[in-house]
Write a structure and sequence with these properties.
heterotrimer; A alpha/beta (775); B mainly alpha (238); C alpha+beta (78); A: 775 residues; alpha/beta; seven-stranded mixed sheet; six-stranded mixed sheet; B: 238 residues; mainly alpha; two-stranded antiparallel sheet; 6 helices; 2 strands; elongated; disordered C terminus
Chain lengths: 775, 238, 78
């Protein structure tokens, strides 16, 4: 009987809602309600819609997945999500199609005599646990390593950290976010002492100018770009594109300014020079809230194995900073940056105008940079000098590329030097972790070991004997895979790969573990604007697939750490999240409770007294500000943000006689990262079936290259053959070629250079020297 | 004598003023007689990419506020009837104003911004490429219904439309079933009162069309993928 | 067991805030309008007392400008 009563109530509720809408329609002719979107779904589809975050980039759009008879059949944007307000991009709309791919990894595969043999999952996990235990026994704790992902969920990252650092006691844990976000992290830490952006996406609704630094948002963060375009048409906001390549974003922006690779450092300093010269400095803000520092210069590029670097910050005063900037007058900078004096002054005048609100956006152009940390610092300098920060519509905003680069990699801290709160080098932080994890604090080592690039160098050198990767595809995404692929193939290292699909990385695995995809498990992601989003399992995964977190727990149990992981299989996501939340208690980083996250389309941390904090460091919005002033940069002990003196330094490898072209790599709108998911979505594959090498038409003409001809791109490290593309998706500057890296059949990372930013250890995929020839 | 001089100089001043004014207005008149020619693609311009955003300038048409005039809308059938085959340049279905005129002076006057034309009781379709002004290089009039000899060309069927035909999943955005060359500006044919009713977009204000809608059949060159071959399937136990 | 529907008018520009506030309350179902500062709200409570408390809670939300009742239903308790 009960069902009929609830059905009747449901009916009455629907009637009530309908009457409210009808009333509204008579008051406001033409009114539209969010749920009317559902009408686009054919009437006969009896779909059940479940909310979650998108699987792909760091924007973190809210999605609704339509399921029918236990299968996911449709996706639409979540109209209640304040991130995307019901709109998605083409990848988002089709994401669930990949899981039906026929080559899905459904069972564990163990390599026996050079062949992969289907093995029951329990047995495969036994093999992994035994191998790990044996390796530790014979070679020590630091012979095993784990390489995770910014696509791991928060509970997965947390368990990985607890397992490696708390249970085993090694810092051999790093993740692929090192390849994309590390410079943003060190940039935030050096300038503000607290990671992640201070603003949020709502800045878009207030800003007058959007300045994008080396960032093709129309293709990489399309939903945010659409929000910018909307403001452009509605309020006349302006988009300024500052880049090394003309892209779809350039064609949509009000002004496109091109610069010579690596000279963004000089241009940023020139903007500061102009701001000071013209008296556009917000004096009271700088006096109250900023200090000045300089660090070590000529740091090198990390090209040699076992490279070590520590910065030595030194306080300076405003006068010596001003003196330093004299080298960066627009006239001097324009000579080597190829940006006209007029354009530099134009950029400075936008930042300098006290009546204009400016947001700077950047992603990989600034982060994947051998001086990435510096470059992040320099953009903060501009915003700090003018006081345009931490206010609605004003601020620097570092975008992310992975759905949980912030939530998992940065907040949980799946880096070698990180703990869920703080760093391993800090005794207090180790003690806190030990207390929550219930392990002896001496077990957590105080010294960081290998960052991503160095980890794979150590595999190649034979120091690491066991490596386990999850939800990542390093043999497509690492720089200089021409070294690291043979390295991983060596007998000396036992390779375990957890993934959803076979990839070039799983090709070198000794054991392949079948992972659940996104909606086949529950989880939490954290996006670029500090928004934590939860989703419940929507459908069952095929075969013996399991969530990554559960596979870690199973292996940990088999290794005798069962008491540290007392979670239940059905409910582990909730249990782990509640344990993890203890790390971030307090006004500076409080996380929203799970009940809130289940109900809402995400919440922004610091979540204090039931409220998201949209603008950090601003006393008006942030309850953690405690100095009685309008702003408080509480990440630093003195409450002041640091303006860094960072010079221009050359790239490690520049075009020369033998290798005359710059090589730039990146993405396209159709594919996400290494394409292991998006290439399995027919719509996306059909639109962009393979990678290409893009030329400036003048270069193509002088080399006699025509569209579609096969071109061999060669560097000192390796080569790759791709079809030429002229005047298609993008237009590199003269003397530069561009290649997207998604294509596992055309591995451009065999060609790239593994030089990295000495502070963040993030490699530079955007600059190396190559030659090109027709084949 | 002085009086006469004054009168003469007065006339001279008036005459000069007249000439100046007349010249000025003549020059102005000349300018107005030409629709300014839009920049042709040079330099930092990507033909296949720029078109999408082209007509969203503040100065251009306001597509989000255009009326739908149900009594005078085109159908997709009319649209394709006017083309020799899908993708062919449409022929001119009406008598042309000046046979010897340059398109920039004539055609463009109606076809750049569209609008209702009393004479033909229809809205003028908007061209996706107003910068190309030699219109009649590709578009010809139809002066007879006869053919020269018997005719065996079978017109290919136009791409079909409808729920589930061009989209991969229920409710997902449809893909683009036609080529994009010369038709990069989506909005020209898919919005406004001259858009065929079947393909009129519900959300012309979105601007970045190819965020969600991709070409179905790409023109990219298919290549040999043997440079790097995954061995996985060869050694996998089936 | 009363079920009532309202139109909730938000303070200009604070629709999102109002929606979040309403969603965090139990027994509330909200559908926001896309182009007006208005939300359609349905409350579904188990008795009149609860209904009254909920209404008070709703009316104390600062981003709410006006709450107008559209329709009400009451089903006998069983």
């Amino acid at each position: 009987m009960y069902t009929s009563v609830t059905n009747r109530r449901n009916f009455i509720r629907k009637m009530a809602m309908l009457s409210a809408m009808t009333a509204a329609a008579s008051m406001f002719p033409g009114i539209l309600f969010a749920s009317e979107q559902e009408e686009r779904i054919p009437k006969d589809a009896n779909l059940d819609w479940k909310k979650g975050p998108c699987r792909f980039c760091g924007v973190g759009c809210g999605i609704l997945v339509g399921t029918e008879n236990g299968k996911a059949v449709a996706v639409k944007g979540d109209p209640n999500s304040s991130v995307n307000k019901g709109l998605l991009c083409v990848k988002g709309y089709h994401q669930i199609m990949c899981i039906q791919s026929k080559d899905r990894l459904t069972h564990a595969l163990v390599k026996k005599n050079g062949r992969y043999v289907k093995t029951p999952l329990d047995e495969a996990l036994d093999i992994v646990a035994t191998k790990m235990k044996d390796t530790i026994a014979t070679h020590g704790k630091d012979a095993v390593a784990m390489y995770t992902s910014g696509q791991s969920t928060i509970p997965e990252g947390y368990v990985a950290s607890k397992f490696m650092k708390g249970a085993i006691g090694t810092n051999n844990l790093d993740c692929n976010a090192r390849l994309c976000m590390a410079s943003a992290v060190t940039g935030f830490l050096t300038t503000f002492g607290a990671d992640e952006p201070m603003g949020c996406y709502e800045d878009i609704d207030y800003a007058d100018y959007f300045i994008t630094w080396g960032n093709n948002m129309a293709e990489m963060h399309p939903v945010l770009f659409s929000r910018m375009l909307e403001q452009k048409t509605r309020r006349g906001a302006k988009i300024i594109d500052f880049a090394t390549r003309t892209t779809r974003s350039s064609t949509a922006s009000d002004r496109s300014i091109l610069f010579e690779p690596q000279t963004d450092l000089a241009v940023a300093n020139a903007i500061c020079y102009e701001i000071i010269k013209n008296g556009w400095v917000n004096k009271s803000f700088v006096e109250k809230h900023c200090s000045f520092s300089k660090g070590v210069t000529n740091m090198g590029y990390g090209l040699e194995d076992n490279y070590k670097f520590t910065d030595k910050p030194e306080k300076i005063d405003f006068e010596s900073y001003k003196e330093f900037l004299k080298e960066y007058s627009p006239e001097k900078v324009s000579k080597y940056s190829k940006v006209s004096v007029k354009d530099i002054k134009y950029l400075a005048s936008i930042y300098g105008d006290p009546n204009k609100k400016v947001v700077s956006y950047w992603c990989m152009g600034m982060n994947q940079h051998t001086r990435g940390t510096w470059m992040n610092n320099l953009v903060y300098n501009i915003h700090l000098l003018t006081g345009k920060i931490s206010q609605p519509g004003n601020g620097p905003f570092s975008l992310t590329g992975q759905p949980s680069a912030c939530g998992t990699a940065r907040e949980v801290g799946t880096f070698t030097h990180k703990l869920p709160k703080g760093v391993v080098t800090n005794e207090k932080h180790r003690k806190l972790a030990a207390k929550i994890w219930k392990v002896p604090y001496e077990r957590i080592p105080s010294k960081p070991t290998y960052h991503a690039t160095e980890m794979f160098r150590a595999v190649d050198r034979g120091e690491i004997k066991f490596i386990w990767t999850q939800a990542t595809n390093p043999l497509v995404s690492l720089p200089k895979t021409s070294r690291y692929r043979p390295g991983m193939e060596k007998e000396s290292c036992f390779v375990v790969v957890s993934d959803v699909f076979p990839t070039p990385t799983s090709d070198v695995a000794d054991v392949i573990l079948p992972a659940s995809w996104h909606i086949e498990k529950s989880g939490l992601y954290g996006n670029s604007e500090r928004r934590t989003q939860h989703w419940d399992k929507m459908i069952d995964g095929p075969g013996e697939t399991k969530p990554d977190a559960w596979m870690f727990i199973e292996v940990a149990k088999r290794m005798g750490y069962g008491d540290l992981f007392p979670y239940s299989e059905e409910n582990h996501v909730e249990e782990i999240y509640n344990e993890y939340r203890q790390f971030h208690e307090g006004a500076k980083h409080g996380m929203a409770p799970l009940e809130v996250l289940k109900k809402e389309s995400g919440a922004i941390w610091p979540y204090v007294n039931g409220k998201s904090t949209q603008w950090r460091f601003n006393a008006k919005y942030d309850p953690a500000c405690s100095n009685g002033e309008a702003f408080h940069f509480y990440g630093k002990p003195d409450g002041k943000a640091v303006i860094w003196q960072r010079p221009f330094e050359e790239a490690p490898e520049k075009p020369d006689q033998e290798y005359p072209f710059w090589l730039n790599t990146g993405r396209v709108i159709e594919h996400w990262h290494t394409g292991s998911m998006t290439r399995r979505i027919p719509v996306l594959h059909q639109a962009m079936p393979n990678a290409y090498v893009e030329f400036h038409p003048d270069d193509a003409k002088s080399l006699g290259i025509r569209n579609g001809e096969n071109i061999k791109v060669t560097s000192r490290r390796g080569s790759c053959t791709l079809p030429a593309s002229i005047n298609e998706r993008g237009l590199p500057t003269k003397g530069q070629v561009f290649v997207p890296f998604f294509d596992e059949n055309m591995l451009i990372n065999d060609v790239t250079l593994d030089a990295f930013c000495p502070i963040s250890k993030e490699p530079d995929y955007k600059k190396c020297a190559v030659k090109v020839e027709k084949v | 004598m002085r009086k006469r001089l004054v009168i003469i100089s007065l006339f001279i001043v008036m005459f000069i003023t007249f000439i100046v004014i007349w010249n000025f207005s003549y020059q102005k008149g000349l300018e107005d007689a030409y629709i300014p020619v839009i920049d042709t693609p040079t330099g930092n311009f990507i033909p296949s990419e720029s078109g999408v955003f082209k007509r969203f300038d503040n100065t251009d048409l306001d597509y989000s506020n255009m009326p739908v005039d149900e009594n005078h809308q085109r159908t997709l059938k009319d649209y394709y009837d006017n083309r020799a085959y899908p993708g062919a340049p449409p022929s001119i279905p009406h008598p042309v104003a000046k046979e010897r005129s340059y398109g920039g002076n004539t055609c463009i006057q109606c076809h750049q911004y569209g609008g209702f034309v009393e004479k033909f009781n229809a809205y003028a379709p908007i061209t996706p490429h107003p910068e190309m002004v030699n219109c009649r290089q590709c578009h010809v009039t139809k002066n007879t219904n006869n053919t020269f000899t018997e005719f065996a060309f079978a017109k290919a069927d136009p791409p079909s439309i409808g729920e589930g035909i061009n989209n991969a999943m229920p409710g997902s955005p449809p893909m683009i079933p036609h080529q994009l060359q010369m038709r990069e500006s989506c909005i020209s044919c898919h919005a406004g009162p001259s858009a065929p009713e079947e393909i009129r977009v519900t959300h012309p204000e979105r601007i970045n069309c190819r965020q969600c809608h991709l070409p179905k059949n790409t023109e990219l060159h298919k290549v040999d993928v043997s440079t790097f071959l995954r061995q996985f399937d060869k050694i996998n136990e089936k | 067991m009363p079920i009532k529907s309202y139109l909730a008018h938000s303070v200009i520009g604070k629709k999102e805030e109002l929606m979040i506030a309403l969603k965090s309350l139990d027994h509330c179902e909200v559908i926001p309008a896309k182009n007006q500062d208005v939300l359609a709200l349905v409350t579904d409570t188990s008795n009149d007392k609860e209904e009254e408390i909920l209404k008070e809670k709703i009316e104390s939300i600062s981003s709410l400008k006006l709450l107008s009742l559209v329709s009400g239903f009451n089903t006998p308790q069983n």
